[in-house]
């Protein structure tokens, strides 16, 4: 293994040592300035549309573009927190054109670019599919290296902790379990069921440009896992990443994290590499149940990306990632050296994961054809007390996409996919050999622009499953800009999912309950719809964006994890009837143009239940309501103060026998965080924060903790935070954007 790591690190740094030559010696054909309301916009990007030519605004607010061939060009100017501007420019002979840009503060984020909703680049405001874009700037405002904790601050998303000892978790979207959401990296569905349990914990912010969230049906483009929606992690673009960046922090719980990234390139080839290490070896038991409140161990990540451009578009992209984790938790006397002990209880998980993904566009001037590929290998070796779970999974994916504009009104997309899933573990589920399957599929989509205000998107996907035959997944999306600042979006579609029981719920092994499969489990099928109204209000010198969402999902054959039939068992079966996930949500973002203040509010009301043999049964761990809020204030353009919080309503909890009874519904609770960011010089920030500052924790989630090897020990009763108040201190440094 060490040999493999050494080879990976050598290859990564070889990738980073690409030539960094720029054309500064050539006389510029275009120059100018970029300023905001308070002075030069240092670090803003000036891009020549349709080419790879770009420039970065310096400390004086000036930019100089390399020499361009004579002709007509369109310049785009982008800066974080400001609206994008475009300008036409004519390059003639050796004359230098000069342009001055004055950007206005971005009151609402409408010009972010997304690819998730339609598999094509589009502005969020133009996409017929509702997409929530979470930029890296917002992720950095939450003092964590865990992407799950950052996404928990998106309205309609909720982190569910499945195991109070080892910390397995998932993200619920609109009340549905994480297994119903597709997790992508740069549009590639390579996470797989085994990785999804710890999946987003294996992402570090050093590789992330933004996260795109689609709540609602997306199976037409992304396959059977996308019943509840899609979470797509977009990695950094090496062209615009800092040449060198560093981020490090420590917490009062003695957790240490360090990220480093470098980027470079020449006029057509650009590369980025990053590494991250997170370390914690301090036993914390503030709940005082004898078990660690949070797992200890080491996480390490390495990420490399290489992009090559042709004359007017990206031709080739290759990225790779390696993730290692040594996670341990349990009683204080436990250490991984005694993993598997039947006397000292602990849980120890070793994870090795390697990924490669890329794309290639052949040099066909008249065609937009792209070949995409990805492969992921996941190796996990875990002990939950004296119960072992070891598994290996391979996920391969090939995707061919062709798109063309037909006239002025139609954008057509056609694709073909081939997915390979290989899985083998140490449970009875694969005692006759592993599960290996190929799933080919084709899909087509057309976006019809009926008018400037109305567009319709229709799509159909057909997959061939080796056990269930042809699977059809249609969808329809309608976008109507009824008024200049009022937009309606309606999305509908179907979904299909085949369960991989132990890969999706192997944390049940740690609960000391017998796993009972009551019948041959049939695939889940859904019909779902989402409705969104986006309203922008101009209020004096401020702008407010309001999003109203309604969602409805109807399940056939939903697979239930039933804790109540027998307290010592978990039963799995298809609902005899149907299941419903429905609800409404509202999100408000308000930014003041001539004030350092901004705030946001979000609220989701949801109802998730099963109609099983005519009886309504609440879904476990699905809160009745959730609320989010944040407040940001800037002092003298140097100090940013960010306050955020969340509230969680009651949820249905598992039932336990006497004498371990617990309430069947959890209490309402809130969590509050605050962080301060101080810019001490250009590119250097110091930050400090307090997480869970009012120190709320739920009581011990464990049942019969004094007898962890007994039949009544269980780790599933988790509804709120288990970490007490913690303080974080850190520093960020970025040079040479």
List keywords for this structure.
single chain, 737 residues, mainly beta, Immunoglobulin-like, Ferric Hydroxamate Uptake Protein, Chain A, domain 1, Maltoporin, Chain A, disordered N terminus
CATH topology title of the largest domain: Maltoporin, Chain A
Oligomerization status of the protein chains: single chain
Which structural class should the secondary elements be placed in?
mainly beta
Cα-atom radius of gyration: 26 Å
CATH superfamily of the largest domain: TonB-dependent receptor, beta-barrel domain
CATH class of the largest domain: Mainly Beta
Record field, number of beta strands: 42
Overview of this protein structure:
This protein has a 22-stranded antiparallel beta barrel. Strands 1, 2, 5 and 8 form a four-stranded mixed sheet that branches. Strand 36 (597-612) and strand 37 (615-618) form a beta hairpin. The protein has three domains: 2-102, Carboxypeptidase-like, regulatory domain (Immunoglobulin-like); 113-233, TonB-dependent receptor, plug domain (Ferric Hydroxamate Uptake Protein, Chain A, domain 1), CATH 2.170.130; 243-735, TonB-dependent receptor, beta-barrel domain (Maltoporin, Chain A), CATH 2.40.170. The protein contains six helices and 42 strands. Mean pLDDT is 82; it is low at 1-26. It has 737 residues and is mainly β.
Mind sketching the topology for me?
Layout: H1 2-16, E1 30-36, E2 39-40, E3 45-48, E4 54-56, E5 62-65, E6 71-78, E7 85-91, E8 97-102, E9 113-114, E10 122-123, E11 132-135, H2 136-139, H3 147-151, E12 157-161, E13 169-173, E14 181-185, H4 192-196, E15 208-215, H5 219-222, E16 229-235, E17 244-251, E18 255-265, E19 269-280, E20 296-309, E21 314-330, E22 346-360, E23 368-384, E24 387-406, E25 410-425, E26 435-449, E27 454-465, E28 469-483, E29 486-497, H6 501-505, E30 514-517, E31 524-539, E32 542-556, E33 559-562, E34 569-574, E35 577-592, E36 597-612, E37 615-618, E38 625-635, E39 639-648, E40 669-681, E41 684-691, E42 726-735
């Amino acid at each position: 293994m060490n040999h493999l790591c050494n080879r990976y690190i050598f290859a990564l740094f070889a990738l980073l040592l690409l030539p960094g030559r720029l054309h500064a010696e050539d006389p510029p054909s275009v120059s100018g300035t970029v300023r905001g309301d308070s002075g030069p916009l240092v670090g803003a990007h000036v891009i020549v549309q349709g080419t790879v030519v770009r420039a970065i605004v310096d400390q004086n607010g000036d930019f100089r573009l390399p020499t361009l061939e004579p002709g007509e060009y369109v310049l785009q100017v982008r800066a974080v927190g400001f609206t994008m501007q475009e300008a036409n420019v004519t390059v003639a002979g050796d004359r230098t054109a000069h342009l001055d840009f004055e950007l206005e503060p971005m009151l609402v984020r409408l010009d972010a670019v997304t690819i998730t909703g339609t598999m094509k680049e589009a502005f969020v405001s133009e996409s017929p599919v509702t997409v929530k874009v979470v930029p890296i700037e917002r992720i950095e405002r939450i003092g964590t290296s865990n992407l799950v904790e950052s996404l928990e601050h998106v309205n309609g998303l909720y982190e569910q902790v499945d195991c109070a000892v080892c910390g397995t978790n998932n993200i619920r979207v609109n009340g549905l379990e994480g297994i119903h959401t597709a997790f992508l990296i740069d549009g590639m569905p390579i996470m797989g069921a085994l990785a999804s349990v710890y999946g987003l914990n294996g992402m570090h912010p050093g590789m992330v440009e933004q996260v795109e969230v689609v709540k609602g049906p997306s199976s037409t483009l992304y396959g059977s896992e996308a019943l509840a929606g899609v979470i797509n992690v977009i990695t950094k673009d090496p062209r615009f990443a800092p040449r060198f960046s560093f981020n490090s922090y420590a917490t009062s719980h003695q957790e240490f994290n360090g990220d480093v990234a470098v980027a470079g390139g020449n006029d057509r080839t650009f590369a980025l590499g990053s590494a991250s290490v997170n370390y914690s070896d301090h036993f914390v038991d503030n709940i005082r149940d004898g078990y660690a409140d949070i797992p200890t161990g080491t996480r390490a990540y390495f990420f490399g990306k290489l992009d090559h451009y042709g004359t007017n578009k990206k031709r080739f992209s290759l990225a790779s990632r390696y993730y290692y984790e040594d996670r341990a938790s349990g009683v204080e006397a436990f250490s991984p050296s005694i993993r598997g002990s039947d006397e000292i209880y602990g849980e120890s998980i070793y994870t090795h994961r390697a990924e490669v993904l890329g794309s290639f566009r052949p040099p066909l001037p008249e065609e937009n054809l792209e070949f995409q590929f990805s492969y992921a290998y996941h190796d996990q070796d875990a002990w939950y007390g004296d119960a072992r779970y070891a598994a290996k999974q391979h996920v391969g994916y090939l995707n061919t996409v062709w798109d063309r504009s037909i006239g002025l009104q139609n954008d057509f997309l056609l694709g073909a996919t081939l997915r390979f899933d290989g899985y083998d573990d140490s449970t009875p589920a694969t005692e006759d050999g592993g599960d290996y399957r190929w799933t080919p599929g084709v899909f087509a989509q057309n976006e019809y622009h009926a008018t400037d205000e109305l567009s319709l998107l229709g799509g159909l996907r057909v997959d061939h499953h080796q056990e269930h035959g042809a699977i059809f997944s249609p969808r329809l999306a309608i976008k109507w800009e009824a008024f200049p600042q009022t937009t309606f979006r309606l999305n509908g579609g179907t979904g299909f999912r085949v369960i991989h029981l132990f890969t999706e719920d192997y944390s049940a092994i740690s609960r000391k309950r017998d796993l009972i499969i009551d019948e041959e489990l049939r695939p889940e099928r859904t019909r779902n719809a989402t409705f969104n109204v986006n309203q922008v209000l101009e209020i004096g010198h401020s702008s407010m964006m309001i999003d109203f969402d309604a969602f409805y999902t109807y399940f056939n054959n939903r697979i239930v994890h039933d804790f109540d039939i027998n307290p010592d068992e978990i039963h799995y079966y298809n609902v005899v009837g149907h299941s419903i996930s429905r609800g409404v949500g509202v999100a408000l973002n308000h930014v003041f143009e001539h004030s350092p203040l901004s705030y946001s509010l979000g609220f989701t009301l949801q109802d998730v239940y099963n109609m099983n043999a005519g009886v309504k049964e609440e879904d476990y761990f699905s809160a009745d309501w959730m609320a989010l809020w944040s407040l940001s204030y800037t002092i003298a353009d140097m100090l940013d103060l960010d306050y955020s919080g969340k509230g969680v309503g009651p949820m249905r909890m598992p039932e336990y026998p006497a004498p371990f009874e617990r309430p069947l519904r959890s209490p309402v609770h809130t969590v509050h965080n605050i962080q301060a960011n101080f810019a001490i010089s250009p590119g250097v920030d110091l930050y400090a924060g307090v997480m869970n500052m009012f120190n709320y924790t739920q009581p011990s989630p464990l049942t019969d903790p004094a007898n962890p090897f007994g039949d009544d020990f269980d780790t599933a009763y988790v509804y709120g935070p288990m970490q007490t108040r913690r303080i974080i201190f850190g520093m960020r440094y970025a040079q040479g954007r």
